[in-house]
Sequence to fold (216 residues):
Amino acid sequence: MKNHLLAGVALVAAVSACQQRGEPAATAGAAARPAAAPAAPDSMQLIKPFIPAGYRVQATLAGDLNRDAWPDRVVVLDTAALLTDTTATQAVVDRIMWFHRPLLVLLGEPGGARYRLAARNDSVVDSRGAGPTGNEDTFQRVAIKKGYFSVEGAGGSSLRWYRVTTFRYDLADQHWYLHRIGQDNTHIEGDDDVEHEVSTPRQFGRVRFESYAGAQ
Fold:
């Protein structure tokens, strides 16, 4: 499975396309860029105010999400009960498996001392019960590169799939939109040929991050 290769290709292609379009490096009125990208703040303390009751951080990654060089952060949340309660009944576990896993976009404020919540989506990361066996966690990781971020997932049984869903920051309206969905499908019981699928705004239109309903 070419996990990291597909993710890297998706992000590099996205950045290259953005540069070819000649998009500006900053918008009027934007906060002044730091001379060099500062280190991310102590995120585990600073993101606590954004974590809803009953959830905990499953994955988080720092990077430049809005191209202002201040460190931002993507946070994937999961239900705390599923991760910590070993005495729950099967009925409770089954219900928890289908809880949404929110993905938060946190922007670093100038000075790097705090974050603010810029966007949230509850569908881009599959629930734990979305796999073919009902208990497979298809979430793999998140990746960030200069105004782009991707969510990687993998799953399946006889047909194994690997998907990278990428969002791009639009400097004009200062928000994120669905940029690309790339998926590899492998029939492990056949000849192991890999089918490549790619969707772009030409197929799905202009989709704001919060409006993305997940893979169909």
Observations:
- The chain is about 20% helix and 35% strand.
- Helices lie at 3-20, 43-46, 80-84, 90-97, 201-204.
